[in-house]
Structures are given as structure tokens and as C-alpha cells.
Amino acid sequence: MPGISFKNLCKTFPDGTQALRGVDLEVEEGEFLALVGPSGCGKTTLLRILAGLEEPSEGFILIAGKDASVLQPKDRDLAMVFQNYALFPHLSVFENLAFGLKARRRPKEEIKQAVRAVAQRLGLSTMLTRKPSELSGGQRQRVALGRLLSRNPSIHLLDEPLSNLDANLRASMRNELAKLHQEHGRTTLYVTHDQVEAMTLGQRICVMNEGKIVQLGTPEEVYDHPANRFVAEFFGSPSINILNGRVTHDEKGHSSFQLDDHPIELPGQPTCEGENILLGIRPEDLTLSPKAPLGKAWETKIIRIENLGDSRLLRLALGSQELSTRQDARNFKVGENLLITPDWARVHWFDSTSGKRL
Fold this sequence. Notes:
Layout (H helix, E strand, L loop, with lengths): L3 E9 L5 E10 L4 E5 L6 H9 L6 E6 L2 E2 L10 E4 L11 H11 L4 H14 L15 H15 L3 E5 L7 H18 L2 E6 L2 H7 L2 E6 L2 E6 L1 H6 L4 H6 L6 E9 L5 E4 L5 E3 L9 E6 L4 E3 L9 E10 L4 E7 L2 E7 L9 E6 L5 E4 L7
Parallel strand pairs: 3-8, 3-9, 6-7, 7-8
Antiparallel strand pairs: 1-2, 1-4, 4-5, 9-10, 11-12, 11-14, 12-13, 14-20, 15-19, 16-17, 16-19, 17-18
Helix pairs in contact: 2-3, 2-4, 3-4
């Protein structure tokens, strides 16, 4: 199973759109790498160049140490699952599943065994004679995935394969994809804009924005130590709170974060006096502190309550800014005042101009 190296990869389309801007990336053999970012960030273009469907403007790709530019798409030992399924409408489910194997002139009995095994695994055994038009969206997606698994090449490419499915089916298919990778251990690149898919499936996550890689790391690293404000806001639901303020120090050496007229004491945060900075706090890292002394907690007012079933999401007013916190208790009321304290060990500081982590 080959590793993959992207070296200074650039792609500019004829209309001047720069889809990729000097991408350097190493994908380990057998790794499940999630490529995540907003629409138009270049993640699908990266996959299409790897598959041989697009040519890079600059740079190159190595597959198992070989320059991919000298390899035809059919010789790269990879297969791709597309967002829109890309099934052959005139072929049956069986014929769609068998297509890759037939193209490689595999023996008929081998094809039958491979297709039947995959159909059984994906719950398609009773649908092998149907055409794609007779299937639901979820069933078509399973056929598209099954077509990849029937051939089971060394590299699996998946381009937002679950985006057209309902929430329950998405969760079920995420579980199935995780099991399949655990069993087969193929090198997998999985493109998504869904943070849940990236966090639950990726052994590592490659976060992209505007054609560049902005962070590469494990799900824990990306969530707990975001490289900048963009990454911090992309991951987490509800989104991280971003508060605009400044840090001050008094003559006794005590530090405070000044947010409008609501200062709060800091436990020795290493920041510069008078610097305008952004404080990032995830909703789960805010604690109710009804007995906290003045200056140790913020006094906020509930302006909206969202029922999440197992918990409540509270939208709070704090001066001219707002923040959110998730709480298990259910006895809150709009207009109620709350004292809250950040978990200072888990907050994030960002430069207010560049957005970079401090």
C-alpha cells in the first residue's frame, strides 16, 4: 500500500482561479486522512489531481516513491467515490459493482465472489438486478462505495460521499466506513466539509482554506490546539466564543482581561499589556460560578435558551458581546443573570489582526 507525497502542488484554472497554492503534504501508508475545509478551499481539486483527472500547474505527486505524472490514471491503483455517486444508469447494481474488476479482465468466478461479498456487507444482496433509478439515495451511495470495495485498490479516494444522505444514514455510513478501513487498512483520503465526519473518521485531519493547508494534526490536536481563529471556529458545535478585548496589568503584577466594562482576573496569562487580542472559549469550557467573588467571574444575562434534549445551550449577553455555554441543568429562564467563569487552562488566545494563535 503506497504512501503519497504532494510536493509544492499548485493549480490555477483558465479563468484565473487559484485552487491550490503550494501544497506540501505527506500521507502515510495505510492512513485515513480527512481533508476538511469550506467549499472552494481546494480539497476536491487535490483529490482529482491525485486521481489523474486534473493536471497540476506546478509541483508533482509521488505515489509509493514514483512520480504520478508518468502513470496513467488506470495505473495508479486507486479508485474514487464521488459526491453524486457517478453510477452507470444503464447498468444493474451487480454490473456497477463488477465494473472495475471486468475492466481489469478478472475471471468471472472471482468477480462473482467479490461482488456478492461486498453486496452482503453493504446490504445490497436483494438489489443486484435493479438499476440505479430504482434505488434511494442511500442505496445508490452504498453501490458507489461497493464499487470501490469490490476492486479494493491500494488507495481509496472519497469526495464528500455522505453529503446527500439524511442524518441517521450518515451516522450509520460513518460507522461502516470506519469498520471497513480498520479491516482493509487502505491508504484513504476523505474529502468533507463536515467537521463531525473529519473528527470521527480521520486518523489525522488536514484543514485547508483558500488553497493552502492551515493545520495538519490528529483530531485532538486540531480541536484542542487550533493554529488560528479559522480552525478554532471551524471545529466545534456550537461554535467557539470569540471575545474581543485587551490584557492589562496592575502595579501588583496581576493581569486582567478587559472586555468593555467587564474585567476578569487572569491566572498569569503570558500576554502583553495593552495588546488588543481575541479570547476563544468553547461553550463546554464555561462554568457556572454562583459564589465567585467580583472580578473572578463575568455577570451575564440569558437572552436565549436552545433545548438540545440532553442539555441546554444558553445564549448570554456580556456587555456589547455575546457568548454561548452548554449546561446540563434545565431550570434556566430568559432574563436570568448568571455568573460564569472560563476554564483558563483550556482557553485560546489569538492575534486580533492575523488570527494566529498566540
